[in-house]
Batch of 4 targets.
Target 1
Amino acid sequence: MLPRVIISKYIPEDGGSNDWKKVTADDVCEYIQRGKQTEYSEDGEVNIINQRCIYWDGLLLSNSRTLSENQRPKWQDYRYLQAGDVVLNSTGVGTVGRAQIFPGNDEPYVVDGHVTVMRPSKQIRPEFLWYFLWSEGGQKQIDATGSTGQIELRKKDVLNLDVPLPPLDEQDEIIKKLESYQRQINNIQSACDERHEVVDKLSRSILNKAFKGQMTHSTYNKSLEKKPEQRKLEQFKSS
């Protein structure tokens, strides 16, 4: 995950340059609404996104459930998710405030009563809204709604979120930079995972040879020679 401090550098709490506007989420979203209480079934055709689907590092649609068919007529068309909608966890300790962007899907999706849908207008990119919610300024406002001990993000709380809004071209540039940082972090994580795998295999190999009495000084030194994965990590660190 991208550290929040990096996001907040590009989306500061008090806004950026003079051409940034101070607006509310209500100003830049066409639609903000909590989902409904739902009745589930095992063979429904409408998928329901719940809090277990929404994490900062991904939207796990595999954790969704399905809506009972007898409940389907109660869901108006505008409640069905559209590509670019931001889904926001709105209840619970440790879950409230997590958000993700719905990428669109051939199957119909709605959200349950613990999730809020934010449908961005043409004034704001879905990615910029998502990064704002992830930023220190966004999370501070969300945390403040629970200061009385009520761990719930109400619709009016979301509507009144103060959003620093740069022009669209600057939003695009910020998104581009933050996505670049995320790719770098992913590359480092991948290299570290490869190194851990190499170390694990090496440890098991050494122990296996030692138990079989095959470990000599020369074979031990040879086992410690750098593997391609280790060289890759060192090259990445020095680049």
Target 2
Amino acid sequence: MERTLWTVCVVLLLCCFLTPRVCLAGEKSKEVRTVDRVDLERYVGLWYEIARYPNWFQKKCAREVTATYTLLENGRVEVLNSCRTQSGELAKAKGKAKVVDKKTFARLRVTFFWPFYGDYWILDLDPEYRFAVVGEPSRKYLWILSRTPRMEDAEYQAILERLKVNGFDTGRLVKTEQSAP
């Protein structure tokens, strides 16, 4: 019984980590590109979600979605995501991220529930760190973030064009309601 449970766990883990890459490999032949370099000290702080691909772990988030990143002494990044639910309740999720590409600092792995990690790749970043676009190699998840609750439409449209070049389906993006000024 114990051996069977162990086998099931291993198979499930392999399915979680390998299946998306294998299944999507033929669908998107072009590799997802990240930015050339990220200064994590400039990147940390408060970000407002402008838009995202719908996903299961943010299903309860109706509006006012933010992410706050804090650089830790050990080089990892503390992640605090928050949002308002449909009823107005504040929901939070705390996690940690580790840099996996020490050359660019644009590829991280984040966990909210150890031992499960997800890719966190910075795909687009304003030179002044006013906006960032985050995704991962299978193109299943995508977020557009801003230092302010609102983004100029021209800037948003320019981001969408760059995302299309990077192989993302921008028609899947859902804009996030932000009530902050």
Target 3
Amino acid sequence: MKSIKWTMSGAAILSTTLIVALLVEHGFSAADDARIIPTTSATSAAATKVPSDKLAKTSKNVRPGQMGFTAEREAAALTFVRQHHPELADLLTRLKDRRPQEYQKAIRDLFRVSERLALSNEQQPARYELELQEWKLASRIQLLAARMSMNGSPELEQELRGLLAGQLEVHRQLVKFNYDRAATRAAALAAELEDIEARKAALVNERYQEAMKAVGAKKQSARPSGPGKSAGGVKPAK
């Protein structure tokens, strides 16, 4: 049986390199638990350096309305990420002043994710729950992988493997959900195809009768009244 490559759902909001840079800039390092905790200035100084020219960018370099970035979309995106991944929201707050262009791109991406999930929730709530859980796990995995690149440990590796296993299970459930829906749709199409093959002549006759009936009704309604007659064909009284 051919092996199918499993890929994480959705594009990354921030690159791993950028996440590491943000953590370094603000004196953060990997911890044994799931939180990001402050480190000493010596630890921060020993970490990867970020080019000063990139740190010099400020929000005045980017127009607020550029490429669909609006205050309303920003508020919606931040509300979404604060609710579903607070750690990522903290990084975005630091990103806003330091790297405004990348911040706006991240906000646009997050807004698209929140809108897609909101639509999914309206149309298929069961699928929405799986898609949301998959996104949350993917976001946590990305952040944890960035922390591991700074200071890996057996505990973090175990945590990352646990998150990946959880995401794979959610992805399996999502694939199963899609498969079941597709199978139901395929069964309905197969039944319709079988009916068409078995009743071709009868179906053509039915469509013919319907078409002629519709034409007859149109002719009847369009037929003008004769001279000196009412619409019902009776001469009016003198």
Target 4
Amino acid sequence: MIKKHYAIPVALLALVTVGGATAYAATTPNMAPFASFSAAQQTAIEQAFTIRQDARTKAQDVLDAAGVTPGAMRTAMNTYRSNQRTAIDAALTANDYAAFQALVANSPMASELTQDVFAKLVEIHKLEVSGDHAGAAALRKELTDAGIHGLGIGHMGGRGMMMGGHGFGPDNDNDGA
């Protein structure tokens, strides 16, 4: 009977130990990939992880205080992207380089989106719209081979500039869109 008296405290200690370890693991990085790093480097990684976690928490607190929900942010971004895709399609259809430049002005790719690249994008757009997906793919490959990346022209299954507009990305489901 004496053993039963010790069983409850031992079980509680086990729960606290396991629970604490789980909580600790959720707030610290898995250091196994960094086993070959020096102790100072591992300490720096752990500090950086903590800083990042604290910043995420603070950022979420700011958003929560302002009443900004993740859903509202997602909807706003999706709407913006959709409007951008529509405007880019219109610029390509109209062969309007000035409008295109204005739309991509804040893009990290802006400096690479020359008039020559734009001309190829217009041609890709025309080929896609006409159903010549093989021709469009060949031009997309030319751009990619020339070092023009990040346009949604064949990476990450993108279907256009900013992963959704017509005329740039691969037609993975062969629906012509």
